[in-house]
Input
Amino acid sequence: MAFATFWLIRGSLTIRGTVGAMLALSLGAVAIVVIVYGIRATAGKAPRPNTVEGRHIERVVTVASIIQLVASFAVPVAVIAAGYPDWVLPSIAITIGPLLIWLDRRVHIPRLRSVGWVLIVGPIVLGLLMSGPSLAATTGIGAGVLLLGTATLCFHDLVGNQVLGLPKVPRLPVDVR
Output
């Protein structure tokens, strides 16, 4: 949720002036609503894992998240060093994609695979078509909306309510390898 909020606000503030500020405030408010929904809807629904397999999954997900976070700092440095400063925001978005694809493989949430691929391919396509502030704004807002929507739907999957009229997604056994 924090990354989605960051992306929404960062992309909005790339648009200068009152429009960018109002967009940032509006999208920030939407993100806060989703965060409150997630906290309220999932409270007590999924306690921390207490089995050996559950703790193992929690550890490997934490390690993968740390690796993605390190990559989100290292890749932009490499992009700047290569002389492509416009690619900083897209390169950060691209680093999130492999994490989501890997998470789908580990815990079987197919939507994460699709979103992961969009976060890899989308910024590349945008980078080939745009540059400067328009690339940063489009990448930031697009990645933010995609991550925020995915988080909202994952909250729905977790609680199983008929939120937005969507049926609960059946869960498959978790791969603990």
